[in-house]
Specification:
Layout: E1 4-8, E2 29-30, E3 33-34, H1 35-45, E4 50-55, H2 60-65, H3 70-76, H4 86-94, E5 96-101, H5 108-114, H6 116-119, E6 124-127, E7 131-135, H7 140-151, E8 154-160, E9 170-176, E10 181-189, E11 200-208, H8 212-217, H9 229-239, E12 242-246, E13 249-253, H10 257-276
Parallel strand pairs: 1-4, 1-6, 4-5, 8-12
Antiparallel strand pairs: 2-3, 6-11, 7-13, 8-11, 9-10, 9-11, 10-12
Length: about 280
């Protein structure tokens, strides 16, 4: 059973300045709910209720969001507005929340390694909150947990992207197991389009086995001088097995303004309006 999910949330969110000067990008709302709450809800749907955050300076708003606000709740008690807190109250009751701090921003691999004290020696999920995902019939992480039960190895979510955009992603290539599954043989972090082995891009959903921590420890800095989880996963694939999964659903890159607006429009049309009817 996988019970733990790690959220690396220490980044500065510079693409959303000046909004992120005083608030974490993970708290940016898509309609009436912050990005990070969507991610936690997806983890809970998959059965991952031990939630760990790798935070940094200026991220206290995330801790406050997943906590009781006694003054606010007292003010709206007995009013129609109380119903608006039902979703976050349910998460607070269902989950345990743990926090550790990444002192220096040295890449996603280093952020995941920082979470080792929270995860321990067991498999775990990783969610990058600025990748907002909606599964077709079940969440992306739930789909990946089912696959883990079958393969018992690290799994990364992938999607095809235009070749012109591959330099923004970790790119995989490998041997097809089925229409949606690839056994990874190569991974490259943010390659130039002419050097990319494919257009299969890793998005912000992972299931990782605990041996990844020792691999990260011995992984030297790579692209941009950062410790890349892609480099560690490549070593894991070479020594054992890593599966890439073409998930069923939609993904929005809310790490940039275009994707954020697209996600907001999608949620308004497909969630908010239906909920209001």
């Amino acid at each position: 059973m996988i019970k733990k999910c790690l959220f690396p949330v220490a980044g500065y969110g510079t693409r959303f300045l000046p909004a992120t000067k005083a608030m974490p990008k993970e708290i940016l709302p898509v309609l009436d709910k912050p990005l990070v709450q969507y991610g936690v809800e997806e983890a809970v749907e998959a059965g991952l209720t031990d939630i760990g955050f790798v935070t940094g300076r200026g991220k206290r708003a995330i801790e406050d969001h997943f906590d009781v606000s006694y003054e606010l709740e007292h003010q709206i008690e007995g009013t129609g507005k109380e119903k608006m807190l039902e979703g976050i109250r349910r998460l607070i009751n269902q989950c345990t929340f743990s926090y550790t701090r990444q002192i220096n921003m040295r890449g996603l691999g280093d952020a995941i390694l920082t979470g080792r004290t929270i995860i321990g020696d067991e498999p775990f999920g990783v969610v990058l909150a600025d990748d907002l995902c909606f599964g077709d019939s079940e969440g992306v992480l739930a789909q990946m947990v089912r696959l883990y039960r079958q393969f018992r190895c690290s799994i990364v979510a992938i999607q095809e992207v235009p070749h012109a955009n591959v330099s923004s992603y970790g790119i995989v290539e490998g041997e097809a197991i089925s229409d949606r599954l690839v056994r990874v043989t190569n991974m490259v972090e943010k390659p130039k389009p002419e050097d990319a082995p494919s257009n299969l891009a890793i998005i912000g959903r992972y299931i990782l086995t605990p041996d990844i921590f020792s691999i990260i420890e011995s992984t030297p800095p790579g692209k941009n001088g950062e410790v890349q989880i892609t480099d560690a996963l490549l070593r894991q694939a070479q020594d054992g097995c890593v599966i890439a999964y073409r998930f069923r659903g939609r993904r929005f890159d809310c790490g940039n303004v275009d994707g954020y607006v697209e996600a907001t429009n999608y949620c308004y049309e497909n969630i908010y309006r239906k909920r209001s009817c």
